[in-house]
Design goal:
Bound molecules: glycine
Strand order of the largest sheet: 5-6-7
Strand content: 5-15%
Number of helices: 13
Shape: globular
Number of strands: 7
Helix content: 40-55%
Structural class: mainly alpha
Distance between the termini: 27 Å
Length: 406
């Protein structure tokens, strides 16, 4: 499968991109100054799911400044992860202190499984507690992340081998909870990490089962993807592809697709499963071939050059990281390696030149991020995940051996 998928626009990705070292360093310094502003404003505040507040997305009326929010979402870990990356790159204690001050909130969250009743637990705990443990060896951070992994494992369905969208397919749950979705591909690194820490193979098997099921049902033959795939909660039979945040069931939701482009290289890192190369090539080439000419994707691949629809720059930030990650494992003889390197630079250059907020008092790093158009959530705004993956892409260029938390 996928062996027929080829890059259509080879000419676009054949030549190195004019992205200078100085441009990257300047963008990184600027981004660090914005993170510092956010750190000064939000400090140890965190909401996972303890009451509190942290950088929220509603920047539309506040000129790309975060407003405090109490909304508990999958984005909480991104804020802490941003502080850890900033610390790693700059060595400034201030970033470390703020990231460490969040730990108490994650410990509390790990003691309340009812607040972690979905597929997104890895997004909360990998960039926060796993990061802290990797960076400092903190045992409480390790324990909280392992407890979160244990809770997430309860959402794995051994019959169909996927992490359930919400709940654990309990009698009486809404049928639409018994689905798998592309977003989860960057949540399974929590399982790989838990396996490395505990030796419990159940985590490894669940992560492998999940990425194989994802490839089987969510990735289409042309390399595009469904957002969700519905299974029958009583008979367990596969039913149909469906969207939640995309434009229509048969379209390809851009940020959802980006989780595949990054999730598969991370799965490769842990498994060295050669099957992953072709799946990854198919989903990456689809993204690259559908990228608008200015290098900033629209929120759904139904839209392209000339459309007035919203952008989602967070998707190309995630993809740039995913392509750079895969390049670590590809031999120089692999045809796709050159295309991936050039595509990552092209997307990063477009983010630096077109998507960095210019307001002097902004405390966010990246604008033109879109949460969910069908839900009227955060359209062309800033979000902590846009910031994190943009900063991670920069950090990968500045310090190629940077410790990645996935
Ligand atoms: N739940 C992840 C996303 O909205 O991209």
């Amino acid at each position: 499968m996928y062996t027929n998928v080829d890059l259509q626009n080879k000419a676009r990705y054949s030549q190195p991109v004019a992205l200078s070292k100085t441009a990257i360093e300047t963008a990184t310094e600027y981004a660090l100054s914005r993170i510092e502003k956010a750190v000064d404003k939000f400090g140890d505040q965190m909401c996972v799911p303890a009451r509190g507040w942290y950088p929220g997305s509603d920047t539309g009326f506040s000129r790309n400044r975060y407003v405090p929010t109490e909304r508990v979402t999958w984005t909480t870990g991104m804020w802490t992860g941003l502080c850890w990356l900033a610390y790693q790159l700059s060595g400034k204690e201030k970033f470390k202190e703020v990231a460490e001050s969040h730990l108490k909130h994650y410990i509390k969250a790990s003691q309340h499984p009812e607040g972690l009743d979905d597929h997104d637990t890895g997004f909360k705990f990998s960039p926060s507690c796993v990061a802290q443990y990797k960076m400092t060896g903190n045992k409480e951070a390790r324990a909280a992340a392992l407890e979160a992994a244990r809770i997430q494992l309860e959402h794995y369905c051994p019959v169909n081998k996927f992490i359930i969208r919400e709940g654990t397919n309990r009698p009486g749950d809404r049928p639409s909870k018994y689905r798998t979705l592309v977003d989860t591909m960057l949540n399974i690194p929590l399982f790989f990490w838990a396996y490395e820490e505990t030796g419990d193979k159940a985590y490894y098997d669940a992560a492998v089962g999940h990425y194989r099921t994802t490839a089987k049902y969510l990735v289409r033959e042309d390399g595009s993807s469904y957002h969700h795939y519905q299974f029958n909660p009583t008979t367990y039979e596969p039913e149909y592809g469906v969207t939640h945040q995309g434009n229509r069931n048969e379209s390809c939701w851009t940020r959802g697709h980006s989780w595949l482009v990054y999730g598969y290289p991370v799965a490769y890192k842990y498994t060295k499963d050669a099957e992953i190369f072709d799946i990854h090539k198919a989903v990456s080439y689809y993204f690259m071939d559908h990228l608008p000419s200015d290098g900033v994707p629209y929120w759904d691949f139904d839209f392209t050059d000339g459309s007035l629809e919203a952008r989602d720059s967070s998707a190309s930030a995630v993809v740039a990281c995913g392509l750079m990650e895969m390049c670590k494992y590809l031999p120089d003889t692999a045809e796709q390696k050159k295309y991936y390197q050039n595509a990552a630079d092209l997307m990063l250059k477009a983010l630096i030149e077109k998507c960095v907020p210019t307001e002097p008092d902004s405390d966010s790093l990246l604008t033109f991020v879109t949460g969910s158009v069908p839900h009227c959530e955060a359209i062309n705004h800033c979000e902590t995940y846009g910031d994190l993956f943009y900063f991670e892409a920069l950090a990968r260029k500045v310090k190629p051996d940077i410790e990645i938390f996935w």
